[in-house]
Known about the structure:
- By secondary structure, the chain is an all-beta fold.
- Helices cover about 0% and strands about 50% of the residues.
Amino acid sequence: MFIGSFKVSTGNVQFVSRNDAKGTVNSSAVNDIPIGSTYTVIDNGTLVVKNGRTGAETPVTIRPATNYHFEKWTVGKDGKATTGGTISDDVSLYAVFSINTMTITFAADEHGTIDPAKATYVARAGATYELVKDAQGQQTGAIKFTWQTDPDDSGTPETKTETVNPIQAPVEGYKFDKWDLDETGTIAANSDSTWNAQFVICTYNVSAAVDKELGGKVVDSNTSKTVLDHFTWAR
Length: 235
């Protein structure tokens, strides 16, 4: 962890990352900061220090880790957010970084529906997904997400998983077939997307035979035909 510590008449000023695993702070360009100096946070998270004695402005830059973004500066490790102020005493300013996320919207073709309560899912950047299959290798509609939690102050993340199934019901005579995407993959940072579910018509193999004792005649006992889910036997 890099900490810039500078002597002023009443104490020290520190510019620190809240967690180096999420992002770092570089204040090496800043020299002596006298009492009365000011600081201002600009759009990209850079903190600009204006020397109260010389008027010189010096940036304190930040660098988010992969899949993270700058969120805010705070006064103290768990203090209030700040966008600027005047240095009048000892102070530690912390840069806070947060994980990037993407919103997945689940959609179905005209032969199926999506559960409205599960129509969207917010996934963490860098998480992986896997399309769940049954014992026969057919996709079930469920999707398993796996990700690493934010590292705590010791820098140790945990592995978490969650399985969601947004499929509600197919139109009568149809069934869920597959998702229109790779069977496994990684969630890209800051890239909202729509995942489409595909449904197919139900078909069955039907074999017919006639009972001889009732006067019937078997034409071909080995005959079978694929038919739709809905059919009517003609006499």
